[in-house]
Amino acid sequence: MQGHVVPKKTYFLVFITLIALTALTTAVAFKDLGPMNTVAALAIAVCKATLVILFFMHVKYSPGLTRVVIVAAFFWLAILIALTLSDVFTRNWTPNPAGWQSSMLLDR
């Protein structure tokens, strides 16, 4: 079975882009963007991961079934992250119960 042959120029361009994005990540780390630091770093990381998946893992040139499996994996990851965040964001919905001593002081 013969796979798709990717030109070396494509690999070099992707490599240079990954190096540039790594430099951008470093530059963003030294800037104070407040709460946007994490968002910027994650956005750059997603771009780098997308390049690696598409070109170095040959997903761009793979058949449709492989793409379906990868999309399903990311969908499953999104479900797990959503379930985790639903727990984290709802932890303070119920008040902490007061001890029996504090309720006895209120009765007096």
Layout of helices and strands:
Elements: H1 8-29, H2 36-56, H3 64-89, H4 100-107
Detailed description of the structure:
By secondary structure, the protein is mainly α. The protein is 71% helix and 0% strand. It is flat, with a radius of gyration of 24 Å. The model has no long low-confidence stretch (mean pLDDT 87).
Task: For this entry, give a set of tags.
71% helix; 108 residues; flat; 2 domains; mainly alpha
Rg: 24 Å
Estimate percent helicity: over 70%
Q: Any low-confidence stretches, pLDDT <50, length ≥5?
A: none
H/E series: HHHH
Average residue-wise pLDDT: 87
Indicate the proportion of strand residues: under 5%
Count the E strands.
0
What is the overall number of helices? Answer: 4
Given the C-alpha coordinates, what overall shape results? Answer: flat
Return the domain count.
2
Distance between the termini: 85 Å
Which secondary-structure class do the elements indicate?
Answer: mainly alpha
Tell me about the largest β-sheet: none
